[in-house]
Amino acid sequence: MNFEGLNPSLAEFAPPLHPALEPVLDPHLNPNLVELDPEGVSLEGLPVPESVHLLEGMYSELHTAVSEVGVPVAASHFDLHEEMLWVGNHGGHATSFFGPTLERYSSFQVNSSDDIRQIQSLENGVLFLTKTNLKYLSRGGLIIFDYLMDESEDMHSLLLTDNNTLLVAGLQNHVLEIDLNTVQETQKYTVEVPGITIMRQSNRFFFCGHTSGKVSLRDLRSFAAEHEFDAHSGSLSDFDVHGNLLVTCGFSSRMNGLACDRFLKVYDLRMMRATTPLQVHIDPFFLRFIPTYTSRLAIISQTGQCQFCEPTGLANPADIFHVNTVGPLIMTFDVSASKQALAFGDSEGCVHLWADSPEVTFNAYSRETDFALPCMVDTLPHLDWNQDLVPLSLIPVPLTSDALLSDWPAANSAPAPRRAPPVDPEILRTMKKVGFIGYAPNPRTKLRNQIPYRLKEMDNEFDNFSQVPESPIGREEEPHLYRVAKKYRKVTIKYSKLGLEDFDFKHYNKTLFVLYFLEPVRCLVQNHLCQKEFCLGCELGLLFHMLDLSRGDPCQGSNFLRAFRTIPEASALGLILADSDEATGKVNLGRLIQSWNRFILTQLHQETQEQEGPQRCFSSSFGSSGDSVIGQLFSCEMENCSMCRCGKETVRVSSTLLFTLSYPDSTAKDYEFAQILKRSICLEQNTQPTVSLGGGHRHGGVQTRNIRCLPDVLVINCEVNSSKEADFWKTQAEKAMMKRGGFDITKGKEISLGEWKDLGSPDTGHSYPSVEELKNIWIPHAIKMRLTKSKELDVSNWSESDELSPTDDPESVYIYDLMATVVHILDSRTGGSLVGHIKVGETYHQRKEGVTHQQWYLFNDFLIEPVDKCEAVQFDMSWKVPAILYYARRNLNAKYNLVIKNPIEASVLLAEASLARKQRKCHATFIPLMLNEMPQAGDLVGLDAEFVTLNEEEAELRSDGTKSTIKPSQMSVARITCVRGQGPNEGVPFIDDYISTQEQVVDYLTQYSGIKPGDLDAKISSKHLTTLKSTYLKLRFLIDVGVKFVGHGLQKDFRVINLMVPKDQVIDTVYLFHIPRKRMISLRFLAWYFLDLKIQGETHDSIEDARTALQLYRKYLELSPQGSEPEEFRKVLKGLYEKGRKLDWKVPEPDSQSSPKRKMPLGWTRDEGASGEAMGSALEAKGSTGAVGRIPEGRGLCGGV
């Protein structure tokens, strides 16, 4: 509502407008009127005197209620689902009243300072709009969501366009569209005239009322301005729409001020022009259509006068009545959905209900309102707790799936089995055994099927995972699951018939590796490119490049996993698992991830070491010229010394990329982590005497290991594989907690409750805000390592307050900060899982968000959540077991050159040999690009891909008949085609690669892909066969250059190919010819409708599909110039959908019906677009300039396919 037009002179309200009504407002003269006292006011409604008779069809005052004394009412709204009236005031407080008697239902604070601008009821709650805040609360006052806007916003109105979409507008020059499901801003529409304070909707337009006095009509789909009425010269106070009529009221500019217009402006929406204004006898401030038998208008003034009239007739002074307001001004007005009730809110906090009948209803079909249950304590029977046989079911308890107040947190409780009561001795005495079954008469000492609730001693030896809990929490899921915090539980994708396409990854974010946040590794693998078909370094670099490009979109490592599965060493080490192994928990994931850690570092070290040399772009202070950057980062030289008992000493030098922790036999002693780390690095062990195969005798001795140099990244495998190691971690964490808290660790000493509470107080000198931060922590966030001049290793824990001593050499002292921890989550219900805590550094936040910031994150598959740094080092050995630790040297990035140079060159697009042995030049279906045809930024490229199935879909049929997808089908790309999009050879393919695969194909999908058995086999294929990596690099080069891909359904193509393409480089014809919230249209139907082409007859052909997509894009540019969507193009789309519905979206037979569109765009003709003769002759000349080969006449582009 626009309050700028309020007349300030009305605030005094000294002389009444209706002197005859003045005695009624005086509480001394009218005993039926309750006087409002700010110190104490009755919360019940103020009834109307019984003498008032409500005439049917005539509105009269029915009831009055107080919202909040002295605080003006700012908004009122009749609930659209229940018999309720909602009121919001200038203090940000909301109150609801039930039924025509206005019984107070709920009352709560919505905003602490701002007034409530508008209220809108939904099925599950109520929306409240304030200046910079949109809050959704239940009808009882519980917050469902709270959406904060920018502080510069000044919102005044909201409009619910459908069940899930909301428009919010105010004094700024834009309108926000908010999705109520995701609580996110989906669109921001710019408006030419700022200051929208009122919004209405009809079946044709959005109507926006502006503070300048204008009313704009906007399109329902694009929110574009269609028409505008300049209603009032000063300001607009209210308007309403019904049928073909728009009626407004407002103020005019007169004598350097605003004066209320006594004329209502009436507009005919059929002719879009003004009709005769309607003169009224009051100063209109509110107006509403009340369509019952006629289109009546209710016109309300600020001072409480109300007049009814027809918008096309004359106003009658006899139709004026007065609202007996407590305050001087009417602030709000609303009409119920049934048109039977009117609500007025005044400036003193009162709300007045007017109705046309005593049995008024606010809605035609309201649902029942939930009320608080009455107290039932007095009616419950007495329960004697001393009687064991008294059933507890005598006390009724509501059935609920929520947590109860009596349910203890999982951290403070443990499930315990109830021991079975001992068998009655009388039964044992009289029992007769027949085989292994005993029979005895019932002694009748206990009631049948009843067991006394006796609490026995706790039995420590029991299985936690097999107990049935007494709490309602555990009845939903297994009780042991609640030992694992929710964010650490295994997350699963709920597949549908669309596979991954309709899974909302926005709630989770993308999957990342620990290595991605090591900047030298990230830069190294992106600079790496070799000729090996399956190289983990290359695939990791391509994956990291996708992560750099993505803006919150999910990235999948399918190509990386494909290369990983082909490496023999991975299979030999048992790193490749079947899905059943993981689900059933047959594999030890903690041991598996440590083996994977060792394997991936070794593999990357070998692959990058083979390529480095001339292409080295990193500089290091140590390491030989042949060493890789992986070696410089992780590797350190070790000196292994073997001292035999006979006195012979053998020294051998080796290198290692990681260390494995070695634990002492005794757990009673107090160890620091630095001591165990030093013991593991400088390992000393005794060897037993042995006899060799040749008969020689080897004396036992001592083997020691010393370190020669320190690595830049310290990788530690924790090797917690048994209960012995787990008990060691648990014991050391408890002792470390005592030491941090300042307690003396003495056996048998009890710690008082007061000492525990003092841990968090600042007076004790400890920086731990709670005891929880002390629990289960043993490893430090930083360690200090130093090699002395005698090559002895010194390791110690390092805290933030520590400083280097003057004797320490900064070059020889390494300070390592904890960068990542990988933990194994023990969960027998799901088989367990692996999660990681990673400290994301400043370089990532600077690159992605432009801020310098460090933050710890929890990575649980595709679920990512920020956590506190203490949580990264807390390990509860009952469910959270450490597996890998990463420590990185401080200022690591300054040592390396972190420049990424794109290793993919234009030569990847030139001609290459086929893997197929039988492929001939006459079988070539494409002509590679020449040097003068290299693509530039913005060039069009038609793209299409075909796929085969590697694994069938796994699904189950539920009891209700619905289908649930357990695992979607696994697709693999089999053919990729790229077509020139401009130039003299427009429409001629320059890439048509068939992808060789070593994996077994279960379905070639020939009907949809055109791929036949044998096409992907290098021994018998006649196609141009290449590796996936080769074709992938071609597409990556095109993406890096900046070309725009044109195709149909490219989203799935890029997902299966495993490519991340910026959205501004994708032109998808499936969306160009699409109306929102309607079905997607196939390429075959679009080609028939717009191009009069019959494609995809028996099978699909990617060249034909890519070329057709290009033609459709040309047709789109022809129909919609400059990419806009005028009314003419919308009519074309509507005709397309109408034609599709009539034909059931099937292309008719050739002779049955012709296409409605025959004209081909931009010089394309049907013969030229479909025939290969004309194009084939044009390509002969190109064949002599160094292309793959000449295409014979008459055979066309697809000859030999």
UniProtKB/TrEMBL annotation:
<dbReference type="InterPro" id="IPR015943">
    <property type="entry name" value="WD40/YVTN_repeat-like_dom_sf"/>
</dbReference>
<feature type="binding site">
    <location>
        <position position="946"/>
    </location>
    <ligand>
        <name>a divalent metal cation</name>
    </ligand>
</feature>
<keyword id="KW-0479">Metal-binding</keyword>
<keyword id="KW-0963">Cytoplasm</keyword>
<keyword id="KW-0540">Nuclease</keyword>
<dbReference type="InterPro" id="IPR013520">
    <property type="entry name" value="Ribonucl_H"/>
</dbReference>
<comment type="similarity">
    <text>Belongs to the peptidase C19 family. PAN2 subfamily.</text>
</comment>
<comment type="function">
    <text>Catalytic subunit of the poly(A)-nuclease (PAN) deadenylation complex, one of two cytoplasmic mRNA deadenylases involved in general and miRNA-mediated mRNA turnover. PAN specifically shortens poly(A) tails of RNA and the activity is stimulated by poly(A)-binding protein (PABP). PAN deadenylation is followed by rapid degradation of the shortened mRNA tails by the CCR4-NOT complex.</text>
</comment>
<dbReference type="InterPro" id="IPR038765">
    <property type="entry name" value="Papain-like_cys_pep_sf"/>
</dbReference>
<dbReference type="GO" id="GO:0031251">
    <property type="term" value="C:PAN complex"/>
</dbReference>
<dbReference type="Pfam" id="PF13423">
    <property type="entry name" value="UCH_1"/>
</dbReference>
<dbReference type="GO" id="GO:0003676">
    <property type="term" value="F:nucleic acid binding"/>
</dbReference>
<dbReference type="InterPro" id="IPR028881">
    <property type="entry name" value="PAN2_UCH_dom"/>
</dbReference>
<dbReference type="InterPro" id="IPR028889">
    <property type="entry name" value="USP"/>
</dbReference>
<dbReference type="GO" id="GO:0046872">
    <property type="term" value="F:metal ion binding"/>
</dbReference>
<feature type="binding site">
    <location>
        <position position="1053"/>
    </location>
    <ligand>
        <name>a divalent metal cation</name>
    </ligand>
</feature>
<dbReference type="GO" id="GO:0004535">
    <property type="term" value="F:poly(A)-specific ribonuclease activity"/>
</dbReference>
<feature type="domain" description="USP">
    <location>
        <begin position="496"/>
        <end position="890"/>
    </location>
</feature>
<protein>
    <recommendedName>
        <fullName>PAN2-PAN3 deadenylation complex catalytic subunit PAN2</fullName>
        <ecNumber>3.1.13.4</ecNumber>
    </recommendedName>
</protein>
<dbReference type="InterPro" id="IPR036397">
    <property type="entry name" value="RNaseH_sf"/>
</dbReference>
<dbReference type="InterPro" id="IPR048841">
    <property type="entry name" value="PAN2_N"/>
</dbReference>
<dbReference type="GO" id="GO:0005634">
    <property type="term" value="C:nucleus"/>
</dbReference>
<dbReference type="GO" id="GO:0000932">
    <property type="term" value="C:P-body"/>
</dbReference>
<dbReference type="Pfam" id="PF20770">
    <property type="entry name" value="PAN2_N"/>
</dbReference>
<keyword id="KW-0539">Nucleus</keyword>
<dbReference type="InterPro" id="IPR036322">
    <property type="entry name" value="WD40_repeat_dom_sf"/>
</dbReference>
<comment type="subunit">
    <text>Forms a heterotrimer with an asymmetric homodimer of the regulatory subunit PAN3 to form the poly(A)-nuclease (PAN) deadenylation complex.</text>
</comment>
<dbReference type="GO" id="GO:0000289">
    <property type="term" value="P:nuclear-transcribed mRNA poly(A) tail shortening"/>
</dbReference>
<keyword id="KW-0269">Exonuclease</keyword>
<dbReference type="Pfam" id="PF00929">
    <property type="entry name" value="RNase_T"/>
</dbReference>
<feature type="binding site">
    <location>
        <position position="1105"/>
    </location>
    <ligand>
        <name>a divalent metal cation</name>
    </ligand>
</feature>
<dbReference type="InterPro" id="IPR030843">
    <property type="entry name" value="PAN2"/>
</dbReference>
<keyword id="KW-0507">mRNA processing</keyword>
<feature type="region of interest" description="Disordered">
    <location>
        <begin position="1145"/>
        <end position="1176"/>
    </location>
</feature>
<dbReference type="InterPro" id="IPR012337">
    <property type="entry name" value="RNaseH-like_sf"/>
</dbReference>
<dbReference type="GO" id="GO:0006397">
    <property type="term" value="P:mRNA processing"/>
</dbReference>
<dbReference type="InterPro" id="IPR050785">
    <property type="entry name" value="PAN2-PAN3_catalytic_subunit"/>
</dbReference>
<dbReference type="GO" id="GO:0010606">
    <property type="term" value="P:positive regulation of cytoplasmic mRNA processing body assembly"/>
</dbReference>
<feature type="binding site">
    <location>
        <position position="944"/>
    </location>
    <ligand>
        <name>a divalent metal cation</name>
    </ligand>
</feature>
<keyword id="KW-0378">Hydrolase</keyword>
